[in-house]
Specification:
single chain, 144 residues, mainly alpha, Arc Repressor Mutant, subunit A, 7 helices
Length: 144
């Protein structure tokens, strides 16, 4: 459903938020290892997230990536998805057809429309704080 870049962006954001709660900045190398992503690809994704002001990059000996604690609860998953994949996830055809709408629907148009609406609602109502705290408590995992 999401692009690979978006999947990595979501996982990286959750990992950075989790570390930020402990006042710990994380390096590119650490993030790439934790989310099991190639470093160069992770760097490009993190640049997009920095450019969209979702994460913060700090240069220098004690640098790395972080999210200010005050911003973790305010950051919705929809912001991360939009920064990386745009809004195409809310518009695309369930079968990948180039033309699919109310007038020329694909065979799964109505069912997929409902799923897209639910997905949008979930992404807009879920924030990084909820997910980071679940990871910190052990209730959910980024990797096994």
């Amino acid at each position: 459903m999401f692009s690979k870049a978006c999947e990595y962006g979501l996982k990286a954001s959750i990992y950075i938020a989790t570390s930020s709660y402990d006042d710990h900045r994380v390096s590119l190398k650490e993030i790439a290892k934790e989310i099991d992503s190639p470093e160069a690809f992770t760097a490009k994704i993190l640049q997009d997230l920095v450019r969209h002001k979702i994460i913060k990059s700090v240069k220098g000996a004690y640098g790395g990536f972080e999210i200010p604690k005050k911003d973790i609860a305010a950051t919705k998953l929809s912001q991360i998805v939009k920064a990386i994949d745009g809004d195409s996830i809310y518009k695309g055809c369930g079968l990948g057809l180039h033309v699919c709408d109310e007038h020329l629907p694909c065979p799964v148009h109505d069912q997929f429309k409902s799923i897209r609406t639910q997905l949008k609602d979930m992404l807009e109502s879920t924030n990084l704080e909820q997910l980071a705290l679940d990871v910190k408590s052990g209730a959910s995992f980024l990797k096994l």
